[in-house]
Amino acid sequence: MKAIANFLKFRRYCTHEKVQRKILPIVDSKECIPEPELDVEFFCNPANRDQIFENIKRRKSCGDIDKVLYLCQKPELKHLLLNELSRIPNLTHPATLNIGNHPEISKLCGSPPEFDFQPTEFEKLAVKMRLLRMDALGPVSGHRSYIFLGDLADLEQALIHYTIEKLTTQGFKIVSVPDILPTKVIERCGLIVDGDRTLVYQLAPHYGDEFSLSGTAEMALAYQLMNSTLEHDELPLKMAAVSRCYRAEASSLADERGIYRVHQFTKVEMFVCSEQDKSDEIFAYIQNIQENLFTSLGLHFKVLNMPPCELGAPAFRKTDMEGWLPGRNIFGELSSCSNCTDFQSRRLNIKYKTKDGNSVYVHTLNGTACAVPRMLIAICETHQLKNGTIAIPNNLQPFMNGKTVIRQQAVPDMRTYKYKPKVM
């Protein structure tokens, strides 16, 4: 009787919960992702064959324009045609076509720091000061992982807050994005998701769909705009996001040791949708923001125009910025900036209305504002002092409670894990 009385007393809440669960829609992400609307008229025109073939060759792409031209004549093989068209890379900016197989230095910014001592590379400096742990982190973290401690963890947050503050003054809207995305979206944005060269961590298919860990916020920001048509006065639409980035890539190069290339890291990313005839202008605008950010932190760096073979599938044009790392005595990549024209928008159905009322595809652009691990390497190596401490750049000090120098940390010892394989 007591059980029945309790049920009658609380039945309103029980019934409400049951009804709520019934009306919640189950959305299959595959149903929301549109079919790509590729430029069939251009790619299936035999008159353009040689131009496309040469572009594929220069970009070292796996696309096959001759197969595309063959399938164009077979309406019953439309699904195969779409698959082959998706392998064709974006066209290439005319100025980029004149670059050989190696990046072209566009400009040098700032001056290299001068030392009256032998500068130490970041990992040795950080470990000695008890700012960083990379070894014996246990089975959860695994290879190419790290833990920032004390002031270095604070410096990471300072970099993020400083970067976001600078971007908001430029009119960027800050968006919080998911780290798990439909694999199909990642593929539509131009990343390789299968084969030996995949950079993507794919999740086990326990939930009836294919999902992967995001490699950059650019893809989630594009996903947010999927199947939308922007008004002309909304452009350029400038968005930025702070996210964790997951990369399955590995490297055995000595220059990429330590935290230079890791499997997960924090990054602030810029993403812009622009009118088609304004994307070159926006490309220069994003690059200028990057240059100002790095200059304001006292870094010496060079701007590189990347050759066709380094563009990847989506980019029409790309620049990299490499910062001087005095501890390693090399330049290392800090950021990149890409104009993807309509490569991504055609695959995700992102359009805008022109002044005359037509709907056309936006041009999408992206640029790294702050990739934390490499920025920390450049800042700490550039601003290290003779006594083994690190001077905090003036512009970051307000985000470090006014602290001006990072010294050896008084942090507790952490447990050292030793992996012991099971004996079968």
Topology:
Layout: H1 2-23, H2 29-32, H3 40-43, H4 49-58, H5 65-71, H6 78-85, H7 94-97, E1 104-109, H8 122-128, E2 132-133, E3 147-148, H9 150-169, E4 173-174, E5 180-182, H10 183-188, E6 211-213, H11 217-224, E7 228-230, E8 237-246, E9 264-274, H12 279-296, E10 301-305, E11 317-325, E12 330-339, H13 343-348, E13 350-353, E14 359-361, E15 363-371, H14 372-382, E16 390-391, E17 405-406
Parallel strand pairs: 4-8, 7-13
Antiparallel strand pairs: 1-10, 2-3, 5-6, 8-9, 9-15, 10-11, 11-12, 12-15, 13-14, 16-17
Helix pairs in contact: 5-6
Q: How would you characterize this protein structure?
A:
The protein has 424 residues and is α+β, with helices and mostly antiparallel strands. The chain folds into two domains: 36-89; 95-406, Bira Bifunctional Protein, Domain 2 (BirA Bifunctional Protein, domain 2, 2-Layer Sandwich), CATH 3.30.930. The chain is built from 14 helices and 17 strands. The protein has helices at 2-23, 29-32, 40-43, 49-58, 65-71, 78-85, 94-97, 122-128, 150-169, 183-188, 217-224, 279-296, 343-348, 372-382, and strands spanning 104-109, 132-133, 147-148, 173-174, 180-182, 211-213, 228-230, 237-246, 264-274, 301-305, 317-325, 330-339, 350-353, 359-361, 363-371, 390-391, 405-406. The strands form five sheets. It has an eight-stranded mixed beta sheet. A hairpin with a 5-residue loop joins strand 13 (350-353) and strand 14 (359-361). The longest helix is centred in the first third of the chain and has 22 residues, at 2-23. It starts with a helix and ends in an 18-residue tail after the last strand.
